[in-house]
């Protein structure tokens, strides 16, 4: 064999080794970038169970309301610095059509209506450059913490006050998750003090877990549809374990047909369902129904979704106990 041939093979071997090293380095960098991407985007925090409180007294301070209403707005309808008693972060927030009528109907001593201020964002995980929004996981985690916080504080101050939870979209997921923990016995307040849970367009809607109001809807919440899917900052958590537990008979859900947030195809990621799920995507394209619950009619009387929730909440408040004051 000639010297030239051996030299050529050595050069090729050296080039191949360098190429393999380069590929390994690039793979390591890619793994590191993906790991950093996930960490920066945020992971969904684990709920922290709250131990049962002390035995309840016979009376509570005069400053305590009889009922604490907790309202959780949807994505882009709140901010962490919003005023919980006069929200202005988004003047078009859907839940204002529930909270304001209740504030007008009841004295604050009877029903304190508190709108949870939280980041309420949902960033696009593949936006480049980044869109500057908080991830769904971070926003949802912050909203859950803020919701638990008002419940914990109010119950500590006012152990006889009853509670009512309601929310829309991301806020419905948050309110529903907190209600689920209460119904399981490890939430921020005892289940017997919760008057009701009213959710609109819940991304974790399970048709069997609550009373469904309005037209029949064949689908499920998007987080059930895409259960197990995890991309940076977005975790699809599936069903709520145990549903609403002790609160099942007090939980109501409203979902408009073709709203992909709460009326998504069941088990969409299952290969045998891909064709049917793909066809359903056509229903969601440029479909404004998710933003139209203030006009979505849910009964023969022409009652809209927000009117129904406000009326349902008012009935719960009117029938609520009136604790003695010390």
TrEMBL record:
Which residue spans traverse the membrane? Answer: 20-40
Question: What keywords are annotated for this sequence in UniProt?
Answer: Disulfide bond, Hydrolase, Membrane, Serine esterase, Transmembrane, Transmembrane helix
Q: Does the keyword Transmembrane apply?
A: yes
So what family is this one in? Belongs to the cutinase family.
Name of this protein? Cutinase
Molecular functions per Gene Ontology: carboxylic ester hydrolase activity
């Amino acid at each position: 064999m000639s010297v030239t041939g051996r030299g050529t093979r050595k050069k090729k071997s050296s080039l191949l080794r360098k190429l393999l090293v380069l590929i390994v380095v690039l793979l390591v960098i890619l793994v590191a970038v993906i790991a950093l991407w996930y960490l920066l985007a945020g992971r969904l925090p684990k709920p922290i169970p709250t131990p049962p409180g002390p035995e309840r007294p016979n009376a509570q301070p005069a400053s305590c309301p009889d009922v604490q209403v907790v309202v959780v707005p949807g994505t882009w309808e709140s901010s962490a610095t919003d005023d919980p008693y006069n929200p202005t972060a988004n003047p078009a927030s859907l839940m204002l059509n529930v909270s304001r009528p209740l504030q007008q109907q009841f004295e604050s001593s009877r029903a304190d209506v508190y709108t949870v201020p939280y980041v309420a964002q949902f960033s696009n995980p593949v936006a480049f450059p980044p869109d500057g929004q908080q991830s769904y996981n971070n926003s949802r985690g912050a909203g859950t913490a803020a919701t638990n916080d008002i419940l914990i504080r109010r119950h500590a101050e006012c152990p006889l006050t009853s509670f009512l939870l309601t929310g829309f979209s991301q806020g419905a997921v948050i309110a529903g998750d907190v209600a689920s923990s209460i119904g399981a016995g490890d939430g921020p307040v005892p289940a017997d003090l919760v008057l009701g849970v009213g959710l609109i367009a819940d991304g974790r809607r399970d048709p069997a877990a609550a009373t469904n109001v309005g037209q029949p809807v064949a689908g499920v919440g998007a987080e059930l549809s895409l259960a197990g899917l995890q991309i940076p900052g977005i975790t699809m958590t599936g069903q709520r374990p145990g549903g609403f537990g002790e609160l099942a008979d007090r939980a109501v859900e409203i979902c408009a047909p073709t709203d992909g947030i709460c009326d998504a195809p069941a088990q969409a990621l299952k290969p045998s369902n891909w064709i049917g799920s793909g066809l359903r995507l056509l229903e969601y394209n440029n479909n404004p129904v998710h933003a139209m619950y203030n006009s979505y009619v849910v009964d023969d009387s022409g009652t809209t979704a927000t009117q129904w929730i406000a009326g349902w909440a008012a009935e719960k408040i009117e029938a609520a106990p009136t604790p003695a004051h010390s």
